[in-house]
Amino acid sequence: MTDMVLPSESNPLNNLFGGELLARMDRAASIAARRHSRRITVTASVNHVAFNRSVPLGSVVTVEATISRAFKTSMEVYIDVWMEDRFSGERIKANEAIYTFVAVDDAGIPTVVPELVPETALEKERFAGALRRKQLSLVLAGKMKPGDATELKALFMDS
To answer: pLDDT tens, position by position, for the chain (159 residues)?
Structure first.
């Protein structure tokens, strides 16, 4: 999704409001999740947001959302936010985020989503990290015992 930062979307420092960027990321992630699952999708969680750079008024901003991994009914969506330099046209990575979406049927009941097969090196890297991120979220939420988080344990065990 590409759009321009308008005055009504900027803070007193003439930068894009963080909440406006969150909404844009949520919409882009929702579209990516819906395209993958071909179902209604709902935001389950915002797992990570990094506001690395301010996005100035008048900037052209592109929000790119891709599914990094599909689980049973949920999908991790990785979001990259780019802005174009107004003078050179160069694309600069401004921010990134990771959201989780769940596919639901018409009654709002979670439904199975198709598997995802990563192809590029970046897709494979994000796919591999998604299970660790999911396990960490489940452990922190008290929905998984730390001892059951096999992918997380593997990070700390000597081979």
So the answer is: 999 999 999 999 999 999 999 999 999 999 999 999 999 999 999 999 999 999 999 999 999 999 999 999 999 999 999 999 878 889 999 999 999 999 999 999 999 999 999 999 999 999 999 999 999 888 888 988 988 888 887 877 765
**Is residue 101 domain-shared with residue 51, that is, in the same domain?**
yes
Instruction: Give the end-to-end CA distance of the chain in Å, rounded to a whole number.
Output: 43
Q: What amino acid is encoded at 155 in this protein?
A: L
User: SS3 of 99, please?
Assistant: strand
In 3D space, the residue among 130, 152, 156, 128 whose CA is nearest the CA of residue 140 turns out to be 152
Alpha carbons 47 and 157: distance in angstroms, whole number: 25
- Does residue 136 share a domain with residue 109? no
Q: Which domain holds residue 73?
A: 2-116
- CA quadruple 31, 32, 35, 37: dihedral positive or negative? negative
Residues 6+ apart with CB under 8 A from 19: none
Query: At 62, is the secondary structure helix, strand, or coil?
Result: strand
Based on the structure, what is the number of domains in the chain?
A: 2
Both 31 and 55 in one domain: the answer is yes
